[in-house]
């Protein structure tokens, strides 16, 4: 009979491998350029938003593509919602990664008899994490993947995570598209 902890470890490792594979596929799709996504309309904007958040090392070019697509869309509000929704769904990969690595880390700690207390971190997260989450989701930066991983690791409420990130992304795209229109 297979030990439950070993089975959980294998499932979590498989999930991590799946996330890595999806990331590489997303990177390959995104390299095809904005023309293919422009033809897809709002769904294309959603896909680019998703890919921009899944692929850790491409946030800047994807944000530029999203802004271009939003500005050139017929309904800018629906385009903004599509970009924000896709981007928020993509950010869930960091959350899932953090949640799945939690079991691995807990099992490693148990096997080595290490007692590492992160209770101080949990107290900080309870007080300030919603604000931290909003700020890091609002500001375009590569560090949000880490914040999403921390949220998953500490089992931050998934609904709350989704709503906060979605609102921050909507505001980000509204402000960035207005700034781009003013400049150009």
Structure write-up:
With 184 residues, the protein is mostly helical. The protein has one domain. The protein is 83% helix and 0% strand. Helix 4 packs antiparallel against helix 5. The chain is elongated. The chain starts with a helix and ends with a helix.
> What's the N-to-C terminus distance?
65 Å
Order of helices and strands: HHHHHHHH
Approximately what portion of the residues adopt beta-strand conformation? under 5%
Largest sheet: none
Average pLDDT for all residues:
79
Low-confidence stretches: none
Number of E-type strands: 0
In short:
The protein has 8 helices and no strands.
Compile the SSE list and pairings.
Layout: H1 4-30, H2 34-39, H3 42-54, H4 59-71, H5 76-112, H6 119-138, H7 144-153, H8 158-183
Q: What are the key terms here?
A:
184 residues, mainly alpha, 8 helices, 0% strand
